[in-house]
């Protein structure tokens, strides 16, 4: 925060561009109670567990709804996307109940996510030095009859399968953008901070491969909102001394700037009707990526994508869909890709069908006299 404010006031063109063109939200501490406990113990006496849980005993990072398992269960039953969405999956009702085992901090963050149309996010943690991306949840081994028989001697049989997100390539790009700009994150020749290197010397890893867990903030953010979120572990020492903080800042400074700039990669635009009025909650579909997003209240949207050419369509209730080709380039700066949707008659047709009991409406043949029953039905419909 201090760096952005000072450099902006000093006229740093890079920071001025970032602050001017980006809506930046910063949360200093997600778990202030746990942090207080850890801070009082200090670096030598502190440990992973001490500041990990809230005062009420919740692990916030695993306290979110497990939407990934719900999505995979629907996929097994062939319900996606016709009866079960592949995006903006609703929060289960039992999770929203007042007596649900949900931390007050978790509820606050979920409400915050619903209020703001976030595009890119990161939660900053310590005790390791890598970037972790979704899915954090490991998919249970399929038990369908079509599944291939497994050998009892196969070690992988005892472990769930890794499931990549539809945006796997984009998540890897975002993770690499941070790790490659870090001064030491990709220097894994000595192994990881505590065990062997899990990142193949790249400084990035899929969460389910490294530390599988259900109900993570990253998975929830991806499946419930438009936001692509990652976990960034800033350094091996979870509680560095004050004298070490300056070097830790230097290690991460360029990475933080580079990562935030990635929000301007991909496509963006506005979806409107033919009168120029914005259409909220329109669905943006990118061909080849089975994960859609929705427009915000002003009809605007942002979609982070890797460089390439994409077939993009916009759909909304009561409107005819629109399709166009949008190109994403290597330079930072999202490609403008707007849509104008014309009104559809299908909404009115469905209303008339519902009035008729969803039975086919008999066509009136010109020149043939109507029966009294047909005349009565026509009068009722009109």
From TrEMBL:
It comes from the Eukaryota. It holds the Pfam family CarboxypepD_reg. Residues 141-162 are annotated as: Disordered. One of its GO terms (cellular component) is extracellular space. InterPro entries: CarboxyPept-like_regulatory, Peptidase_M14, Peptidase_M14_domain. One of its GO terms (biological process) is peptide metabolic process. Keywords: Glycoprotein. Belongs to the peptidase M14 family. This is AEBP1 protein.
């Amino acid at each position: 925060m201090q760096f952005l404010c000072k450099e902006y006031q000093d006229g740093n063109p890079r920071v001025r561009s970032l602050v001017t063109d980006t809506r930046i939200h910063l949360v200093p501490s997600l778990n202030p109670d746990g942090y207080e406990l850890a801070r009082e113990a200090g670096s030598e006496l502190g440990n992973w567990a001490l500041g990990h849980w809230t005062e009420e005993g919740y692990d916030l990072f695993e306290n979110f709804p497990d939407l990934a398992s719900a999505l995979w269960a629907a996929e097994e039953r062939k319900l996606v996307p016709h009866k079960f969405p592949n995006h903006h999956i609703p929060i289960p009702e039992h999770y929203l109940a007042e007596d649900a085992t949900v931390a007050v901090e978790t509820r606050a963050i979920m409400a915050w996510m619903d209020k703001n149309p976030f595009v890119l996010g990161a939660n900053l943690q310590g005790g390791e030095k890598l970037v972790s991306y979704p899915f954090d949840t490991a998919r249970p081994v399929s038990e369908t009859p079509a599944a291939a028989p497994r050998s009892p001697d196969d070690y992988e049989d005892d472990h769930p399968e890794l499931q990549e997100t539809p945006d796997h390539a984009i998540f890897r790009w975002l993770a690499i953008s941070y790790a490659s700009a870090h001064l030491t994150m990709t220097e894994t020749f000595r192994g990881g901070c505590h065990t062997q290197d899990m990142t193949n010397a790249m400084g990035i890893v899929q969460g389910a491969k490294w530390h599988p867990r259900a109900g993570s903030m990253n998975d929830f953010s991806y499946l419930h909102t438009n936001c692509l979120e990652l976990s960034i572990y800033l350094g091996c020492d979870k509680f560095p001394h004050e004298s070490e903080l300056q070097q830790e800042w230097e290690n991460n400074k360029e990475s933080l700037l580079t990562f935030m700039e990635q929000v301007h990669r991909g496509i963006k635009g506005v979806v409107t009707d033919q009168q120029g009025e914005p259409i909220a909650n329109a669905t943006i579909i990118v061909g080849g990526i089975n994960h859609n997003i929705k427009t915000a209240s002003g009809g605007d949207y942002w979609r982070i994508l890797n460089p390439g050419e994409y077939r993009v369509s916009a759909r909304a209730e009561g409107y005819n869909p629109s399709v166009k080709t949008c190109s994403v380039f290597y330079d930072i700066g999202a490609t403008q890709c707007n849509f104008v949707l014309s009104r559809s008659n299908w909404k009115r047709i469905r209303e008339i069908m519902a009035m008729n009991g969803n039975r086919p409406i008999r066509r009136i043949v010109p020149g043939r006299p109507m029966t009294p029953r047909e005349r009565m039905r026509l009068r009722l419909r009109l």
